[in-house]
Amino acid sequence: MMLSNDVLERARLARDARFDGRFFVGVKTTNIYCRPICPVKMPKAKNVLFFASAAAASEAGFRPCLRCRPECAPGSPAWYGSSSTVRRGLKLIAAGTLDEGSVTELALGLGVTDRHLRRLFMKHLGASPTAVAHTQRLHFAKRLLDETGLSVTQVAMAAGYGSVRRLNDQFKRTYKRTPNDLRKRIPSVSSDAGYSGLSLRLPYQKPFDWNAMLQFLKVRATPGVEEVIGNQYARTITIGGQSSIVIVQPAKPLGAKSPALKPPGFLTLTIHAALTTHIFEITQIARAALDLDAPVIDIAEHLGKDARLANSVKRQPGIRVPGAWNGFELTVRAILGQQISVKAATTLAGRLAQRYGEALDPRQRMRDSSLSHVFPTPAQLAKAQMNNLGITQSRVDTIRRLAEATERQDINFDPSQDTADFCQRLQTLRGIGEWTAQYVAMRVLKDPDAFLVSDLGLLKAIKPGHKVTPKLLAEQAEYWRPWRAYAAMHLWNSLLDVEG
Predict the structure, then answer these.
(1) CATH for 106
(2) In a domain, 496, yes or no
C-alpha cells in the first residue's frame, strides 16, 4: 500500500472522496468490499481490511458492494506510484491483452519473466495480473447491466465472457445473484448525448477542467474527423475495420441516495454503430484519450509548489493531458504541425482526411454534424501522393516514411512501451525530431513526464517578455518531475494564442 493504515483509516471514517479509487475496504463480518465513500453503517476498525485494488479484495474472497458499486470508482491514481513494469502491464491489461493471451505472453512483452511479473503485481496491487483482468471484466459487465439496455447475451460478449453461461456462473459466484436479478435493482441510464446510441458513464477523480480539455481539442480538431459543439466532443474512429462515431460530454448528475456518498465526476460516452465486441476497447481508449485516471490531486500539490505555476494550478487544478484516439493519426498531425501554426496544421489534416480517409456510410452520418470521414490508415498514406494539398514535400516524405514503418511494424503506438526506446525509434525516421517524438510520447504513450524543451510556446510562457533558451527551460522543468507533461499544459493554457 502506498499509504499508511492510519491514513487509510482516517479517510474511511471521513468518507473522504479524494481517496475514492485509491483503496478499497473489506468488511470481514459481511465478506463484502466497498469504496471508502460507501454510505452504509460504518463497520468497526477491527472488522476491516484495506486493499490496494478491487482485484486484491476479490482475490481475498470479498465480493463487491451493491450499494457503493466499486465498479464505478474512478481509476486508481495510486498505480502511478507503482513500478514502471506494473504501470505498463496495467495499460496492456486495460486494453484486454489477457482476454485472449496468457500472463507468460504479457510478461514477455514487458521484458520480464512471468514469475517476476506476478511478484511485482502482488507487491504493488496485492493481486495477480489474472485477478486484475478478471475484476476488470466483471466490473465492466456490471456497469453494462446497470447503465445500458444491452441484453445479457450482448453484455457477455462485450465484457469478454464469450457466453451467457460463463457470465451467469461468474455473477452467481461473485454476487450470489444472476445478471437479470441484479439488473432489476438499478434503472438503466438514458443517453445524455441527444443522439441514439449506446451510452456509458465514465468515472473520474475530481476536479476535471472539462472546458480546458475542450478548448485544447477544439483548436486541433481535424475537419470531418473531429468536432466540438457546445460542451461535447465528437469524432469518428475505426476499431477492427469497423467505423464508428463517439461523443463525449459531461454526464447529468444522478444524485446520491445518501448525503454521505460523494460520487466521483462522470462523463457520458455515447457510441454509435460499433460492434458489441468493440465496446470495451472503445471505452478504454476513451479513458486514456481523456486522461480520466490522472492523479490530479497529487499533480496539483506537486506543481503548485512552483511559483511559476502556482497561480495556474490554483485556477485550474483539474488540468488533464489530452491523449490520442489513434496513435498513427496523432503522429501525422504532429508532423503536419512542425514549424507552422496550429490552425494551419488543422487545415492540412482536414484536407488529408477528406482526400484519403474512408467516407462514413450515409446511414452513420448524424444530423447537424460535420463528421464525414475516418482518418486515413498507414496503408492508405503509404501509397498516397499527397500532392496539391499545401503540404511541403519534406512533410509528405516524412508522413510516407512513418506510414511505411508503421505498416512494417517497425513503429507501433502501444502505450505500454518504454518512452525512451519509442522516441529513439521514432527519431530514426528522417523528418522526425525530439519535439515531435516527445509530443507523441506525451499524448499517445501517456507519459506524464514527457516534455518539449524546444517548444516555442513553452519558451514564451515560462518567462513572458524574456528570451529563454531550451537549456534554461529544461533546468526549470527538473523541478516538475514526474509531472512535466502537466506543467506543459498549464504553460500552454497560460498563453492567449495556444501553441502546441
Answers:
(1) 1.10.10.60
(2) yes
Distance (Å, whole) CA 401 – CA 409:
12
Does residue 251 lie within any of the structural domains?
no
62/87 same-domain check: no
* This prediction's pTM: 0.87
For 38-66, what is each residue's pLDDT tens digit?
Answer: 998 999 999 999 998 999 999 999 999 99
Marked catalytic residue, from 34, 65, 72, 423: 34
pLDDT in the model for residue 31: 95
91 and 161: one domain? Answer: yes
Q: Which residue matches cell numbers 501525422?
A: 332
Q: What total of structural domains would you count in the chain?
A: 3
How high is the pLDDT of residue 96? Answer: 79
Quick one: pLDDT at residue 273?
85
Closest C-alpha to 188, from 284, 267, 283, 254: 254
Which one from 298, 414, 455, 497 is the annotated catalytic residue?
Answer: 455
* Residue 348 domain-assigned (yes or no): no
> Looking at the domain assignment, is residue 498 inside a domain?
yes
Identify whether 16 is a catalytic site residue.
no
Q: Are residues 93 and 57 in the same domain?
A: no
Among the ranges given (66-75, 249-258, 457-466), the one the predictor scored with the smallest mean pLDDT: 249-258
What distance in Å separates the CA atoms of residue 428 and residue 296, rounded to the nearest whole number? 34
Domain region containing 28: 5-68
* Active-site residue flag, 455: yes
